[in-house]
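Notes to self after the Tuesday call (sharing in case useful).
The group wants a holo model before anyone commits to mutagenesis around the pocket. I volunteered. Ligand is adenosine-5'-diphosphate. Logging inputs and output together so the record is complete.
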Amino acid sequence: MNTDPRFKCLFEPVKIGPVTSKNRFYQVPHCCGMGHAYPKSVSAIRAMKAEGGWGVVCTEETEIHPSSDLAPALEGRLWEARDIPAFAEKTAAIHQYGALAGIELSHNGLHAPNMYSRETPLAPSNTLVDWGAPINAKAMDKTDIANMRRWYVNAAKRAQQAGFDIVYVYAGHDMSLLQHFISKRHNQRSDEYGGSLQNRLRLFREVLADTKDAIGDRCAIAVRLAVDELLGEDGISAEGEGYEIIASLAEEPDLWDVNVSGWENDSQTSRFSGEGYQERYISFVKKLTSKPVVGVGRYTSPDTMVRLISKGVMDLIGAARPSIADPFLPQKIEQGREDDIRECIGCNICVASDNTSTPIRCTQNPTMGEEWRKGWHPETIAPARHVEQILVIGGGPAGLEASRALAARGHEVTLADSGLDWGGRILNESALPGLSAWKRVRDWRVGQLEKMSNVEMYLQSEMSTANVIEFGATQIVLATGARWSKGHYKDITVFTPDNIMADKLPSQTAHVVIYDTEGFYIGALLAEKCARASIKTSYLTPAAMVSAWTVNTLEQHRIQTRLLECGVKLIFQQRLIDATSSGLEISCVFTGETQILDCDALIPATLRQPNDNLWHVLDIENSKDPIAASITRIGDCLAPTTIAGAVYAGHRFARELGETVDPDKPSFKREG
Ligand code: ADP
Ligand code: SF4
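Result:
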């Protein structure tokens, strides 16, 4: 091992109750949009983390009982004995690499609508279920409380039987019944389970003690606790009840896994927070307990990790997203390969998968979620059967990833881009407010490519049809991206999103209107950029909110707040009909009633057009030239997509080149 001596402390073992983690790298529980529906795929993800060197690998939140049914979300499910074998496969997959297996057992209380089981939702007090259905959760009576304690214990025993080393008692994210009991917002009881903090803590304390009694001799009992809800006086806070809870239960669990709540606060995007954003909330915990403490905060820098350990902030470096972007992060540090770490960019595309109940994907790691069904490994790729001379045109996310993965297979790759620098859309977008971490998509790939001897890279190299033919490659990859459309608006000055990103802004005397039908991040970012440049800015959309899709990335409320704070005027549920010399004609999406909106300059964030000129000029589909068969469009040049989609397209092309692919069949193994 060439471990940098500065980082050696990260590889010290940590005792957690009756078990010991081989190092300080701890993959905290995280969802992956697969849960009980795709158990083999989930096992393969967890195994990959263990292979990559994580000392502890945990499951997603796991329902303990049918009254905690999160359908249609796909989480773990350990309701009864028949669910044990699928979890035993997971623990075996994790153990084979010497990691400990942890399981986050959860009853989701008023967050579980029980749409599949049709059980009555449960809560400390009569209240609305907060997600998934317009129904009430029942105020639990003493029988319900006794049942809950028994259900937890029985689930813990099943977890032990399945081979888990660490079993969680979960009170986090405002999604867990035990947190609902603790919270004065949710708990209005007047019996011994309500009122004072000690009363509200009672069920949590009982479940913790029951679980320890039941399985604590062989399994470590971890508590996941939200020590701050970022609600000030109205919630649990690090200066208030969060502190008191840790102080009163300090030595009870074998491990404290502490974070901020809800999920939108725990998994903040890089647009709104940097690495280590939770440190100030959780740093008090270790002062109150002798038990090991784990925390998160999108940690990807080994220097920061060492500082956290040496400063006594935590004993184990927790990670969900950094372990998704790079399952081999610990191994790379251990081997002195810090430069090879594929750092999470904090975009929450992974989170969006879970929120849309679809298998996890990651912008930085195109193999994430494909470990079982495609047999993809993030660090290895099969050598090419037949080495080709490949010309990749376009050095955005698709072209960079295709080049990297093709070269890793042993192909001879030439990468050409017309720009002054590598990155394509990444260069423009990462310069928008808050997105600088997105540059990591480019930086990691360029860094890897520069180490490869079978890649040649040329900037400022606009490729024409003649250049392409003359080059004489055996394979040509068009990764030439897309550009934002101007639309067909005649009587108004139009700036495309690309203009704004290239700093071609309307004058400060203009009233600019951004018309956003895409609903992801770009429209709001352009509005923010214009408003920050002191331009009078309105944001117009047929949707009912700003950047509607970002509900899935847990950012929507922050984005809308940001625009309001910047003074952007928000106009919802209106469609742009036409631009006229007197302004924009807009119409209500419900009644069709029209009105004129004053506007000097329009920015339509509506559609991206592929840059596929080369394809059309070469007339690939009709061409008899043998070159035609060897030209492929990928990424945004084929169909504009997310950055994650473009990276995936590049990776997939590299994997499939020279392999037999049947277009009539799914390109992956299916389960379920
Ligand atoms: P993707 O997201 O699919 O990777 P991008 O738009 O990010 O697409 O990147 C496309 C890149 O291709 C840009 O850097 C652009 O400068 C480059 N490009 C487009 N057309 C050509 C061309 N004819 N020759 C060379 N480079 C090109
Ligand atoms: Fe990080 Fe984005 Fe990957 Fe999630 S999808 S792990 S936030 S890079």
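Two things stood out.
Residues 142-161 form the longest helix (20 residues).
The CA atoms of residues 407 and 413 lie 6 Å apart.
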